[in-house]
Amino acid sequence: MSPFTTLTFSCTSQPSHVSTVSRLLAEASHIYVQDQGTLAWLVHQDDKRPERFLIVEVYDGPEAVETHRRNPHFKVFGETVGPLLEEGSSELTVWSGIEGSAK
């Protein structure tokens, strides 16, 4: 059994919605990090292409990922942010942790 599960989600905002997507992702990070089993929910923005975003979500196991997906904000967030993204630009990858440390 893996000690943690990490999800990476990359996406590209439509050019006219970069600031809105950035704000919504930042707000979501403050909501989701409170979910039981969520160790981190980190939002990144590409330095050279500000319309590109990467979210790194770290959970203490697969059960915590399910807790995240059951958060009432999850569906609303997807319905709100989804239409602001470039079609076909989203990619979700699930990673099984091997080992790690953090301060």
Polypeptide structure, described:
The protein is an alpha+beta fold. The protein has 3 helices and 4 strands. The protein has helices spanning 18-32, 62-70, 72-81; strands at 5-12, 38-45, 52-59, 91-96. The chain has a 4-stranded antiparallel β-sheet, with helices on one face. It is globular, with a radius of gyration of 14 Å. The mean pLDDT is 93.
* Rg, nearest Å: 14 Å
Low-confidence stretches: none
The whole-number mean of residue pLDDT values reads 93
Outline: globular
Q: Helix share of residues?
A: 25-40%
The number of helical runs is 3
The first-to-last residue Cα distance is 23 Å
Total number of β-strand segments? 4
Largest sheet: 4 strands, antiparallel
Structural class: alpha+beta
Please provide the ordered H/E string of secondary-structure elements.
Answer: EHEEHHE
Strand content: 25-35%
Strand order of the largest sheet: 2-3-1-4
Considering the chains and any ligands shown, give keywords for the structure.
single chain, 103 residues, alpha+beta, 4-stranded antiparallel β-sheet, 3 helices, 29% strand, globular
